[in-house]
Amino acid sequence: MPRTLCACFSHNAAMPPPTSAAAPAPTAITHAHAIRLALALSLGAAISLGITRFAYGLLLPPMRADLGWSYTLAGGMNTANAAGYLLGALAAPRLMRGLGPQRTLMLGALLASVFMGLSGFFTAAGPLLAQRLLAGVASAWVFIAGGLLAARLGTAHPSRAGLLLGLYYGGTGWGIVLSALLVPATLAWAAGGPHGWAWAWWALALACGLGTAVLAWPARVLPQEAVAVPPSAEARAQPAAPVFRWRDLGWALAGYGMFGVGYIGYMTFVVALLREQGASGTAVTVFYALLGVAVLASSRIWAGLLDRCKGGQALALLCALLGVATVLPALTAAWPVVLLSGLVFGGVFLSVVASTTALVRHNLPPAAWASGISAFTIVFAAGQIVGPTVVGWIADGPGGLARGLVFSAAALLVGAGLAWQQKPLLLQNR
C-alpha cells in the first residue's frame, strides 16, 4: 500500500488484498498504457471529490443569496454530502462483491451525474439535502472502486505503483480546477435569470457525464480480478489475525478527527468569505484553480516527510500548516495573502490523509492495517459531518464567516497538538 494511497477518504474494507485465484494478469499493459489508464481513472476522483463534494463551495454564495438560507443550512448541505459518503463507503464492499469494482465504478459515476443534475431542479431545502446525501453515497462508490482498480493497475507495475496511485488521487485536483473554471463562468452567463445557479449544477452534471464516458474505457480494459501476488516475507512473519487497539493510536485518531472538522469548513465557506470581501468572479476562479493545481502537486511535496516520521509528527505539522492557511483569509483580504492561503491549503490537505496511511504502515503489522485505516476513516467521517454545520452556525452569529473560519483554524491547530502527542508504537517495544 504505497504512501500515496489516500485510504482514509474511502473505507478500507472495500480494498481487499489481491487473491491467488486464477485470473488473467494484465501483463500486456505497458508502462505508457498504464499511465494512460491511471489518468483516465483519475476522472473518478475528479467526479467523486473534486466536483461532487468540493464544487458546492462555489455554488453556496449564489444559492444562499437566492434562497435566503442561513449559513447553518448552507453548511448542512455539505454535512449531508459527507454523511452520504460515509454510508456509501460502508456499503461499497458488499456492492463490489456483488457487481465487481468496474460496474460499481460506472454505477456510482452515473448516479453522481444524475444527482448533481437533479440539484438544479429544486429550490426547497429538503430535496436539495436529499440530493447532496445521495450524491455523497454515489461518490463514495466511485472513489473506492476507482481506487481499487488503480491499486490493481499498480500490481502489474510495482515499480510505478506509487506514481499510478498518485495520478489517480490527483484527479481530485483536476476536479477542483474544472469546477473553478466552469462554475463562475456559468454563473456569469446565467446572471439575471431566475435561479441562475441551477445552470451551474447542470454544467457540473454534464462534466460528470463526460467523465463517466471516459471511465468506461479503464472499466472495460482492466481485469475483473486482482493480480495474484505472493505474500511478502514480512507479511508471512506477521500474525494472521489483525491486532489493533484504538488506544494505541488514540492521539493520532483524535487529531485526525479534528482535521475532519477543520478542513471541510474551509472548503465549504472560503469562497463565500471571499465574495463577502468583494472578490470578483475572476478572482475566485484564479484562487480556486490555484488551489486545485496545488492539490495535483501535493503528493510529491510531502513524500519524504511521510517516510521519515514514524509517529504523529507529520500529521501534526500538516494540520498546523492547514490551520495557518485557514485563518489567513479571516484576518485579511489582501490578495497575495489570500492566494497564499489557497496554495498552502491545496498543497497540504490530501497529504494529511496520506499521513494517516503512512502512520498505520509504520506502526502496525500488515494484518492490522485494515482495522487501523478503518478507524481513521470513522473519525475523519465524523469530523467532516460535524464541521460544516458547526462552522455555519458560528457564521450566523457575530463575526460572520471570518469567525467561522477562525473556528476551523482552531480545530486544525488543536488537531495538530493532539497528533503531536502520538509516539511511534514500534519504539515502545511493540
Task: Characterise this structure.
The protein is an all-alpha fold. It folds into 2 domains: 1-11 and 30-221, Growth Hormone, Chain: A, CATH 1.20.1250; 234-422, Up-down Bundle (Growth Hormone, Chain: A). It has 17 helices and no strands. The chain has helices at residues 31-51, 56-67, 71-99, 101-118, 125-156, 161-169, 171-189, 197-221, 233-237, 250-276, 281-301, 303-308, 313-331, 335-346, 349-363, 369-395, 400-420. Helix 1 crosses helix 7 (171-189) and helix 3 runs antiparallel to helix 4 (101-118). It is globular. The two termini are 21 Å apart.
Low-confidence stretches: 1-27, 225-241
What's the CATH H-level homologous superfamily of the largest domain? MFS general substrate transporter like domains
Radius of gyration: 21 Å
- Which oligomerization state do the chains in this entry correspond to? single chain
CATH topology-level name of the largest domain: Growth Hormone, Chain: A
Structural class: mainly alpha
Helix proportion range: over 70%
> What's the CATH first level of the largest domain?
Mainly Alpha
> How many structural domains?
2
What is the approximate shape? globular
The succession of helices and strands, N to C, reads HHHHHHHHHHHHHHHHH
DSSP helix count?
Answer: 17
CATH architecture classification of the largest domain: Up-down Bundle
User: What number is the mean pLDDT?
Assistant: 82
Strand content: under 5%
Largest sheet: none
